[in-house]
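Weekly structure sync - notes
Attendees: PM, LS, DV (DV joined late)
Agenda: review two folding runs queued last week.

Item 1: First target. Sequence and structure tokens pasted below for the record.
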Amino acid sequence: MEFRLPDLGEGITEGEVIKWMVKEGDQIKEDQPIVEVMTDKVNVQIPSPRSGRVSKLLVKEGDVAKVGQTILVIDDGNASAPAVPPVAAPPKAAPAQAAAQSQQAPPAPAQSVLATPATRRLARELGVDIARVHGSGPQGRVTDEDIRTSASRPAATAAALQSLQPTRGGPGEELIPLRGLRRTISDRMVKSQRTTAQVTHVDEADMTELVLLREALRGSADKRGVRLTYLPFIIKALVPALKEFPYVNSSLDEQAGNIVLKKYYNIGIATDTEQGLVVPVVKDVDRKDIFELAGEIAKLSEKARTGQLGLDDVRGSTFTITNVGAIGGLFATPIINLPEVAILGLHKIAKRPVVRDGKIEVRDTTYLSLSFDHRVIDGAYAARFTSRLIETIQDTKKLLAEVL
């Protein structure tokens, strides 16, 4: 039987084969994991639909397959099962005829070109025929840079570029293929920077009262078996700010020409793993207290670190937080997590001198950096949103009303 790449979720049209878990000739059982595929959201292990022998692997590791494309042939003992037809060899041609055919040969169909969905979209946006672009990536993959180079040069120069070969590693160099999650991150970050008008607003928050409140609630958290960090407090403080400034909790549908205001609050948590950055999503944060949020964040973080996130775990975010406070640094300018229009960077809490009522005091403070899409949000709007967030963080009464 022919095994075709199944539908992996809403909006997913293709996936990269990261790892074959079987090889040709292997005997496999029904529901046995046979291949790991990466979409633009998460890795998925796909099980076999039936038992049999693997007779042919049709897609190599690192290749991109479309949903519905045959990627594997299984001999399940059913003689009537359709087989993959062999590729017929073309008739031989005289040397002169072959040379003429070589000169006049049309480019390969665009669907057969090795490229990610993001790269194909970039080609369409820039009006580049991706079938005519020589890929400089691993196994001839067409990269975003290949597309941009082709779009920015005359046709003759672009044609000459196609004859270039990928660079090889020299002495003292190691070539690491840009594949899997690392390549997905690369594509998404470049697309975010290319398609949005990103600006970052930075402000300072006095965290002294929040530090004391967290200490006071640690015992209650311990009794519930959860580790209480600052993140659940920040998430709860975000809710009134997002409600008051709804454009921060929105997305831009360029094709339809609409700004989509979200009346629900799903917060993406950028999580550092050995494989790279992933963004699991905590749903409906306005309906949960800090203890529920702390437990859910811990579970999602563990699933992220062990590669167990499912599609539902990474879909549907309306606003994202990236927390680098435990690592250090003063502040950073985070990149927007598309299709959202804003992302909040949380940074190290440190004791700093602060002037209060004309006197210098030592307070626990931090910097908050809000990157936003200026096409949707103006600078003054972003500043007022951040001020509203800080107001809740610094006011114990307002914060308590939100967190419990």
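Item 2: Second target, run right after the first with the same settings.
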Amino acid sequence: MSPKKSTNLQAFLPPMLLEKVDAPFDSNDYIHEPKIDGIRLLLSHTQGVTRLFTRHNNDYTIQYPELLSVPFTEDILVDGEVACVDPNSGAICFESIMERFSAKKTDKIRRLSEKLPANYIIFDILRYKGEDLRGLPLVKRKEILTDIVLPANPHISKIPYFDGAGIALFKQIRSQGWEGTVSKLKNSTYVGHRSSEWLKIINWTYIDIYITGSRKGDFGWLASIPDSNGSMKPVGIIELGVTPKQRKAFYSVKDSLAAAEDDEYVYLRPELKAKVKIRNWTRKGYLRSPAFVEFVL
């Protein structure tokens, strides 16, 4: 069963998106929250019916039966993140929630809901008992959300938030290996587009790799690292973060490093080193969301 466009009128509220900043900061004008490494979903409970939908308005309610087992009793529309915990490490696992997100057959969804239960973490409230709250300041919406008693469902919770101390929170998040933090202006209203009043700070991991290939078609550099035997192990494709000047520098030396080629790649001797930043490593040992930072001499 494929996801479909939601027919719930509340689903047509576009979510508020975040801008990126490079570093955490302290400010009494902001609250700061952990950034959950999951998938953004809006949850609507209207006239006894609960729906979950993405920011592109696709209905994913069927994917998460455990979130419906004890539903809300009041009409409500909340914004949050759905995430899974790795049963072996106990850490939030993006690959697990993607497995849940992409499941379509009913029997697979049921098995995964038992094996990899999803958790819905609420960070904002947009409507309650028929009242549109988006025009209220964030701190007021947080007060309303704090006072609401959630259903007795162990898979639904509220995100903690902290006043002013963004740097200390980021340090704690980094020590735990989480994705990052979010800083939100206290008096921000909820707008349906990207806004500089909501900021995300990613806890990047920086590593050195070798560029061992170049795509012949769409742009992409093959990234590799030495394995335990000293051989080069491919770990992903770099497509992001490369400036025109850096591309030009690469192409000026590419031909001199060429060792072989096939229909897709020109393969290079492992002599060109670069620093990349990644969200983390995948379970199969690949770079997740690698972005080029600089060449390493």
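Discussion on item 2: The longest strand covers residues 118-128.
Action: LS to circulate a short write-up before next sync.
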